[in-house]
Amino acid sequence: MADLPYRIVIGLEVHVQLLTQTKLFCGCSTRFGQPPNSATCPVCLGLPGALPVMNRRAFDLAVKAALALNCRIASFTKWDRKNYYYPDLPKNYQISQYDLPFSSDGHLDIQTPEGTKRIGIIRAHLEEDAGKLLHEEGGSGKDSLVDLNRTGTPLLEIVSQPELSAPEEAKAYLEELRLLLKALEISDCEMQEGSLRCDANVNIHVPHADGVAATPIVEVKNLNSFRAVERAIKFEANRQYGQFQSDGKKLGDRGVSKATAGWDDVRGVTVVQRRKEEASDYRYFPDPDLVPIEVDSAWIAEVRALLGELPAAQRTRLQSQYALSAYDTEVITRQGRPFVAYFEELARGCGDAAEAKNWLTNEILQTLNDRKSDVRAFPQPADAIAELIREAKATGLNKQRARDVYAHMVSEGGTAKEVIKKLGFTPVTDEGQLRDIVRRAMAANAKAVTDFKNGKVKAADAIKGAVMRETKGMARTEMVQQILLEELQRA
Ligand SMILES: [Zn+2]
Fold first, then answer.
1. Rounded distance from Cα 148 to ligand 1 centre (Å)
2. Residues with CB under 5 A from ligand 1 (ion)
3. What is the pLDDT of residues 37-88, one digit of tens each?
């Protein structure tokens, strides 16, 4: 970014849906794709007199995420009402956390071309999700439908410090965050299904006569992919530079306030929509229906014990323990913990980490992608593939044959030994047997034999080809060569 005439300042607000069975304050199911408005009850519909009860599992998951993000967990936290009107918000307020979030002051390390960079986390707090408005296609254009299934689903909001200084860093931050939350089974982080949403606060610092000028901050919303995050930040920074050149407006100037913009992915532009609401616009106040939560050290210790090995530590260990490259380690860990466990079992089972890595990142990953499936649903356990790797080595099975055996094992089942036998990939090592095959091939290719005798050395290739076909390539080439020469001289 050194060639830009300004420095970009980015802070990200990420919302992730927690992997709970039920909603944050009622027992309704959070399963994706249910018939509209079927997963609702008086609590999440906001009917008069219905009282919320906090989902303990959601709180535990949130604490787990905050600990993994090195946050401080507050010993006392409470719920607040954020008041606003929107058609997908039946209560006219959202239950969130305002001045006493359950966690704060954490950090996440990301990889940049310059090395590891630590990004501060201001806070992570819990809140409930709103419903969804559906704008019917081909309708009058005036009507919208509302689906309240999502209303009350637990969301964890993670707010970073404005310490990201390039679009690529924003993407790296999101990738690392997703890896962490998926590994800990806190969220499935599917941007397409809305279980991970991201808003980017962007402004730029421009060298100026009186030092450095900061442009007004714009919060860019509606970012539906990591790629969109990168593109939108790049566009918005450049737009702000143009704007600053023309009007010179700076952060802190009278009448300058934070604005909200939407990202139009098709046109590739940000569209500034409105003045951003201030906290005072929402008339926050403590929710009188919910009791505050006191978190003691025993509770934190209980959740901390569930963390296990975090992705960053896992990468370092795999790299040194199995002598893998940083790239291969990244490919393996990105697939999640069950995949890493499969790799380790395979490496142990076949006694060759490099081969295990090759099979896993080529064949097995390809199979999983083709089937759109997870390693947990892979039909062959790690020790079965380890046997294949060992057998291929012991019998001199070439890579193509080994792949054929693999494909058969995956589609039809069976052990490596069984499939090798079934496909006739048993090596032909018996000299007498091979000599018989050579003689038969010579008898069937009488003309080639005559040509060879008349000095056309190349003619022997046709006979050799016939032998290799007959043995399905399972005879050693040098052995075939030698027997064939002997037999041709004798003919
Ligand atoms: Zn409900």
1. 9
2. 26, 28, 41, 43-44
3. 999 999 999 999 999 999 999 999 999 999 999 999 999 999 999 999 999 9
Look up residue 130 and give its two tokens: 């709103």
Q: How far is the CA of 129 from the centre of ligand 1 (A)?
A: 12
Q: How far is the CA of 283 from the centre of ligand 1 (A)?
A: 25
Please tell me the distance between residue 49's alpha carbon and the centre of ligand 1 in angstroms: 14
* DSSP state for residue 428 in the 8-state scheme: B
d(CA 365, CA 375): 8
- pLDDT for 468: 85
- The stretches of 186-225 forming alpha helices (DSSP H) are none
Shortest CA distance to 349 belongs to which of 408, 405, 416?
416
For domain 431-490, give its CATH number from 1.10.10.410, 2.60.40.420, 1.25.40.10, 3.50.50.60.
Answer: 1.10.10.410
Return the closest-CA partner of residue 83 out of 247, 280, 261. Answer: 280
Query: Which single residue is written with the structure tokens 């019998």?
Result: 395
Distance 155 CA to ligand 1 centre (A): 15
Distance 152 CA to ligand 1 centre (A): 7
Q: Which amino acid is at 129?
A: D
In angstroms, what is the span from residue 40 Cα to ligand 1's centroid? 4
State in Å: Cα 51 to ligand 1 middle. 10
First to last CA, the chain: 75
Taking the centre of ligand 1 as the mean of its atom positions, its distance from the CA of residue 128, in whole angstroms, is 11
Burial class (CB in 10 A: 0-12, 13-18, 19+), 143: exposed
Cα angle 281-283-289, degrees, rounded to a multiple of 5: 150
* pLDDT reported for residue 475: 80
Segments in the chain below pLDDT 70:
1-2, 137-141
Helices (runs of H) and strands (runs of E) counted in the chain? 17, 17
Q: What is the pLDDT of residue 478?
A: 82
How far is C-alpha 24 from the geometric centre of its chain's CA atoms?
25
Domain limits, the chain: 7-298, 319-414, 431-490
154 CA → ligand 1 middle, Å: 12
Quote the CA–CA distance of 273 and 237 in Å, as a whole number: 16
The letter for the amino acid at 49 is G
CA dist., res. 268 & res. 281, Å (int) = 31
